[in-house]
Design a protein that fits this description.
The complex is a heterodimer. Chain A is α+β, with helices and mostly antiparallel strands. Helices cover 27% and strands 25% of the residues of chain A. In chain A, helix 6 (234-246) packs across helix 9 (382-396). The chains are: A alpha+beta, B mainly alpha.
């Protein structure tokens, strides 16, 4: 019988808290359906299922802290069943192996003392307000902690422990909660990922200035005829260009796992997105190379919105095969980025600025961007990297083909 | 629609992308980007929001004239007046 396992929602993640089940035993689910919500140091994510199945047994209670790779539920898979003309799933990503690379024998953890029944919203509010849920009385159905309970508790001020414990709960520890504040938690997660990257990955770096004269005037006239809601940003051109260029350079797209590089047939483009109150997250636009530019822009807008306000899916966190970081908005010229393990490359863009540009013995002024590549030298060499940047430059010179 | 409405709608659009901002701390005659953490995606969201609330077309070519709150408000009022006149 197949199992739904706690996914790895980032190179640094060891545990996730199962916040809420969206299904119960016996439910029929289809590929892409959301079955649960999981909270990590980087926020709350929706767990989407990878294949059609019937939910067997829920093996983990809401509120439990679960190790990455440990089973969450058993699945009765219906793949290949005669009842439905099965659309063949296109080239599988290798991401599921990231999850299954963790020994399957990891036991589900015993019910932890901090196992509390609280609504996802209450958890979010509690973490925003720095309230330890163990100190909150639940007044919702069955003693579930609601948002109101959290806010009431916050209004009482810190350090006031409730007189009554939740039924069946061990006495709450008197010491303040060890749980880090959300921003500090995200900082820790980033610290762990970049430290691992710099420890394990021999980076090499290349940069190339790219003339965007044609691309920017094409974009300007394309946007003139579009309603504001369909307007495209230069970032969409740059990122789509990266996705297309990668189709020719599989050495830069995939995962380095267990001592060997496994290229990915699919291009799932991770996009580094700054979170407003601090921190960074890099969810992916799946199959980015196959989207039209307009669809790509819509996906990008939607991804940024969800990264900042919640609602990212697990697959968007586990699947990216490469990452792009676009730091141009504040005027920086060159970004030499840190690869997100187990990926093997990250492409960086600085600001698009007008610069003197010499060509055919003439100097003109053009909008120029400095593109950079940081790549894993175990998976590729500088020549591949420089050919990739040349291809990117060529593609950005023919924007109508993006 | 009167002038204060437009100003309130502009503040509202900014707050939607930057909820951490205290509107009373924004100096309306100074560059917005220096006071509020906005990237180009945020700015586009604000433009879309203003377009939807006020039914005003804001061509990309005019973005350069929209750097302060005061500029944005007078730009929008002028556009709205022009639309009224055209009817």
């Amino acid at each position: 019988m197949a199992e739904l396992k706690m996914p790895s929602l980032g190179a640094d993640m060891e545990f996730g808290t199962l916040v809420q089940w969206r299904v119960t035993a016996g439910d029929r689910v289809r590929r892409g359906d959301i079955v649960a919500e999981v909270e990590t140091q980087k926020g709350v994510f929706e767990i989407d299922i990878r294949e059609d199945a019937v939910i067997g047994e829920l093996m983990v209670a809401e509120g439990a802290r679960v190790k990455v790779g440990a089973p969450l539920a058993s699945l009765i898979t219906t793949a290949g069943a005669a009842e439905r003309p099965t659309p063949t799933i296109p080239r599988r990503t290798i991401a599921p192996e990231v999850v299954s690379a963790v020994p399957a024998s990891v036991p589900a953890p015993p019910p932890s003392p901090e196992r509390l029944r609280a609504s996802p919203l209450a958890r979010r509010v509690a973490s925003e307000l720095g309230i330890d849920l163990a100190t909150v009385d639940g007044t919702g159905e069955g003693g579930v902690i609601t948002r109101d309970d959290v806010e009431r508790s916050a209004a009482r001020g810190p350090g006031v422990l409730p007189e009554a414990q939740l039924p069946g709960m061990p006495p709450a520890p008197v010491a303040p909660s060890q749980a880090p504040a959300p921003v500090a938690g995200m900082r820790q997660a980033i610290a762990a990922a970049v430290s691992r990257s710099k420890r394990e990955i021999p980076h090499y770096y290349l940069t190339r200035d790219i003339d965007l004269g044609t691309a920017m005037s094409w974009l300007r006239s394309a946007n003139e005829s579009r309603p504001v809601t369909d307007r495209m940003l230069p970032a969409a051109l740059l990122l789509k260009g990266v996705a297309l260029a990668l189709t020719k350079f599989p050495q830069l797209n995939g995962f380095h796992l267990a001592g060997e590089f496994r290229p990915s047939a699919d291009i799932h483009l991770g996009v580094a997105i700054a979170i407003r109150d601090g921190g960074l997250i890099a969810p992916g636009i799946l199959n980015a190379d196959r989207l039209s530019l307009a669809d790509f822009m819509r996906s990008l807008t939607d991804l940024v919105r969800r990264a900042r306000s919640g609602g990212l899916k697990a697959s968007e966190m586990t699947d990216p095969t490469v990452t792009v970081t676009n730091l141009g908005d504040d005027g920086v010229q060159t970004v030499l980025a840190v690869i997100t393990p187990p990926q093997v490359a990250i492409v960086g863009f600085g600001a698009i600025t007008e610069r003197p540009w010499a060509e055919h013995g003439m100097i003109g002024v053009r909008p120029v961007v400095t593109a950079s590549l940081a790549a894993d030298h175990r998976a590729s060499d500088g020549r591949i990297g420089s050919q990739f940047l040349a291809e990117l430059s060529r593609l950005l010179g023919t924007p109508e083909a993006l | 629609m009167t002038a204060p409405d437009v100003r309130a709608i502009v503040f509202d659009a900014i707050r939607r992308v930057a909820p951490e901002v205290n509107p009373s701390s924004i100096r309306t005659g100074e560059r917005l980007r220096g006071q509020v953490d906005l990237d180009s995606m945020d700015f586009l969201s604000i433009v879309i929001d203003l377009h939807e609330k006020l039914k005003v077309e804001i061509p990309e070519a005019d973005y350069g004239r929209l750097t302060t709150i005061d500029e944005i408000v007078s730009y929008l009022e002028a556009r709205m007046a022009a639309m009224q006149g055209a009817r």
